[in-house]
Amino acid sequence: MDESIKRAKETSRKEFRSEPLEKIIDDLIAKQVASSPSPLMTSPYLEVPDKMVMTYKYSLGGISRFFVDLRDKGVLSGTICTSCGFRFFPPRVSCSECYGDTEWYEVNPDGVVITSSTSWYATSEFFDKVPYAVAYVKPSNADTGMLQRIDLAGRTVVEPGTRVRVVFREKRNGSVSDFWYVIEG
Fold it and tell me: 143 near 152, Cβ under 8 Å?
């Protein structure tokens, strides 16, 4: 296994075990500054500890149906322009190509990876999935795509052109983390 991958996995494990990741990052920065200081890194910066807790409610507006369909039906919904026929996923209220109105349609569960990136770090929600990938996936019946998580199934890379299929959480709450893609075949 590549040395950088080993270090990334170990750092993720330390973060998961609640060891102070800030100390590890500070040490890495200090080593970099010591080996090649830049004028911006030679003077200390003021750091102010702070905690922010926010409670808010926001509207999903004209694309609310996407999240309702996802939560209640376990399907992906997109929109199609009634003027030029361009198919959007994720949905749009109006067409960015011709400014026409759009109407809803059901997006196919299969698609293709346009581009992807593999991550070796994760929050606690996804730690058991490290490494994991996110990819821009274009469904088979859409003209656009969406950035979404890909289950690597033991791989470390997802190549452009890889065929994928959507999977839904059993208990959904109407958020984009209610679905992800798996590699077909």
Answer: no
Residue 123, helix vs strand vs coil: coil
Nearest Cα to Cα of residue 177 among 135, 148, 137: 148
Domain ranges within the chain, ordered by starting residue:
3-35, 61-183
Say what angle helices 21-35 and 3-16 make with each other, to 10 degrees: 140
How many helices, marked H, and strands, marked E, lie in the chain?
Answer: 3, 8
Buried b (16+ CB within 10 A) or exposed e, 23-32: eeeeeeeeee
Using CA atoms of 114, 177, 78, 63 in order, give the dihedral in degrees to the nearest 10. Answer: -130
DSSP helix/strand/coil, 114:
strand
Contact 130, 21 (CB under 8 A): no
Instruction: For 52-64, write each residue's pLDDT tens digit.
Output: 677 777 788 999 9
What tens digit of pLDDT does each residue of 104-126 get? 999 999 999 999 999 888 777 76
Higher per-residue pLDDT: 40 or 70: 70
Cα 98-101-107 angle, rounded to 5 deg: 100
**Count of Cβ atoms closer than 10 Å to residue 165 Cβ:** 14
